Inverse folding.
C-alpha cells in the first residue's frame, strides 16, 4: 500500500516558532507535504554556555555546601559532572573524579593521557593526572588532604550515581572524611532551570517534534517497530540532536515501556512513539499516539480525547509555589477515573527533565514538593488496555510566574 492511501490521526505536531503553545495536530488528513519537514528549518543553532555560567554554578554549589555543612562534593563522570565542569568525559575502568570544595578551586583527577582532553573541553583548570602503572586513589588521597578543612574532620558529599566500587575506594582514600549522600546539594541547584537551560530544552523539543513528524510521514505497512525506531534516530541525527525512542504498534502500545520489536505494522492500528533527543546535554521527552488507517474507531477517539482532557486539567491547574506535584497527578487521574478508565492509568503523571531524561520533580502521589518557576517537567497521562492498545500524550512544560507554560506543541483533540 502506498503511504498516501491511509489517514493518520492525532499526533505528529510539527514544531514551528510561530506556533509555540498552539494546539496543532494532524486531524484526519493524509500525510501531505505538511509532514515533509525541511531539515534546514530545524537545524540546531544552540546557544553555548560559557565559562561564566559554570563558574556561577560552582559558586552556588559552594554556598549550598556551606548551608548543608558539607566541605566537599566528589563527582564521577555524569550529568552532574557536566553541569559543574561543562563537559562529561564518560566513565570507564580508569578513574576520573571531580572534587569541588566548599572553599577554593575545583580539582579533577584523571589519567595523565586524559589531562589535555579535560583541559580543552572542561572549565576546570586544576587537572591532575595519574600514570597507568600508578594507583589513582593515591592522587585522590593527596587532593583530599589538600582540600580538607584544618583542625577537624571533613564532610564530603558523594554524587548519588557514583559506582559502588568507587564509593568503597573513596572510604579508604579520604581518610579523616565522613562520606554522606551529596544528592541534597545538587538536586536543589538543578531543579530550577535558567533561561539558557530552557532555551536548550526548547531546541531539543523542536528537533524531536520535527523528527517524530517526519517519521510518521514515512510509515508503511510491513515496517517493523525496529525499522521505524531506526528511522526516528536518523531523523534526529540529521537535525544535530542525537536521540531515539520507543516505537510501539497495536497491542504493544498497551505496555507503557514496550518495544521496539520485530512486529510488523498493519492497517487500522495504533502507532505510539515516545522519543527524546539532546542539545548541548539537555533533553526533550515527547510522546505521540496516532491511528494508522482509514479512520479511527469511536473508542480510540473517546480514549484519546479523555487523555487529552486529563492533560489539559493538569496544565490548567498548576500554580507556581502553590500546587504540589501530587496535586497535578490527582487532577489528571480524577478525570480519567471518573469516566471509568482509572484502572488503565498505570504510572505517575510526569517527571522532571533537564540534563537527565528523568529527574526531580516527579508528579506522583505522595510528593508534596511545590512547583516553582523554572521547574521543567513532562505531563503524560495514558490509558493502557492490555490486548487492545494504549494511548499516551506527553508534552514538556515549565512552571512560569503565572502558571504552566507548554514548551512543546500539543496535538489537537479528535
Amino acid at each position: 500500500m502506498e503511504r498516501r492511501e491511509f489517514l493518520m490521526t492525532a499526533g505528529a505536531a510539527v514544531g514551528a516558532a510561530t506556533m509555540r503553545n498552539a494546539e496543532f495536530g494532524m486531524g484526519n488528513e493524509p500525510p501531505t507535504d505538511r509532514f515533509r519537514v525541511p531539515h534546514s528549518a530545524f537545524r540546531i543553532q544552540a546557544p553555548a554556555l560559557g565559562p561564566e555560567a559554570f563558574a556561577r554554578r560552582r559558586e552556588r554549589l559552594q554556598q549550598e555546601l556551606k548551608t548543608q555543612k558539607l566541605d566537599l562534593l566528589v563527582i564521577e563522570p555524569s550529568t552532574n559532572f557536566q553541569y559543574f565542569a561543562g563537559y562529561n568525559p564518560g566513565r570507564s575502568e580508569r578513574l576520573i573524579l571531580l572534587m569541588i570544595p566548599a572553599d577554593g578551586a575545583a580539582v579533577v583527577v584523571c589519567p595523565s593521557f586524559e589531562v589535555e582532553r579535560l583541559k580543552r573541553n572542561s572549565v576546570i583548570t586544576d587537572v591532575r593526572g595519574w600514570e597507568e602503572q600508578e594507583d589513582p586513589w593515591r592522587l585522590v588521597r593527596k587532593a583530599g588532604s589538600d582540600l580538607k578543612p584544618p583542625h577537624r574532620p571533613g564532610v564530603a558529599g558523594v554524587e548519588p550515581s557514583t559506582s559502588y566500587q568507587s564509593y568503597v575506594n573513596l572510604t579508604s582514600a579520604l581518610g579523616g572524611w565522613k562520606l554522606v549522600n551529596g544528592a541534597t546539594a545538587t538536586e536543589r541547584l538543578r531543579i530550577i532551570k535558567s533561561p539558557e537551560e530552557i532555551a536548550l530544552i526548547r531546541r531539543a523539543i523542536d528537533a524531536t517534534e520535527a523528527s517524530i513528524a517526519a517519521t510518521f510521514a514515512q510509515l508503511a505497512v510491513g515496517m517493523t517497530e525496529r525499522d521505524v525506531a531506526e528511522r526516528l534516530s536518523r531523523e534526529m541525527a540529521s537535525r544535530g540532536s542525537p536521540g531515539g525512542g520507543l516505537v510501539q504498534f497495536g497491542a504493544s502500545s498497551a505496555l507503557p515501556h514496550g518495544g521496539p520489536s520485530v512486529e510488523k505494522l498493519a492497517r487500522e492500528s495504533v502507532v505510539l512513539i515516545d522519543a527524546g533527543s539532546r542539545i548541548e546535554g539537555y533533553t526533550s521527552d515527547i510522546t505521540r499516539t496516532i491511528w494508522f488507517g482509514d479512520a479511527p474507531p469511536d473508542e480510540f477517539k473517546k480514549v484519546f480525547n479523555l487523555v487529552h482532557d486529563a492533560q489539559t486539567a493538569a496544565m490548567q491547574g498548576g500554580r507556581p509555589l502553590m500546587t504540589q506535584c501530587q496535586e497535578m497527578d490527582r487532577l489528571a487521574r480524577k478525570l480519567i477515573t471518573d469516566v471509568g478508565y482509572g484502572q488503565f492509568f498505570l504510572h505517575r503523571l510526569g517527571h522532571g527533565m533537564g540534563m537527565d531524561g528523568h529527574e526531580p520533580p516527579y508528579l506522583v502521589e505522595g510528593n508534596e514538593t511545590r512547583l516553582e518557576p523554572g521547574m521543567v517537567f513532562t505531563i503524560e497521562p495514558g490509558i493502557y488496555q492490555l490486548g487492545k492498545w494504549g494511548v499516551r500524550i506527553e508534552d514538556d512544560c515549565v512552571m512560569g510566574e503565572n502558571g504552566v507554560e507548554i514548551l512543546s506543541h500539543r496535538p489537537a483533540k479528535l
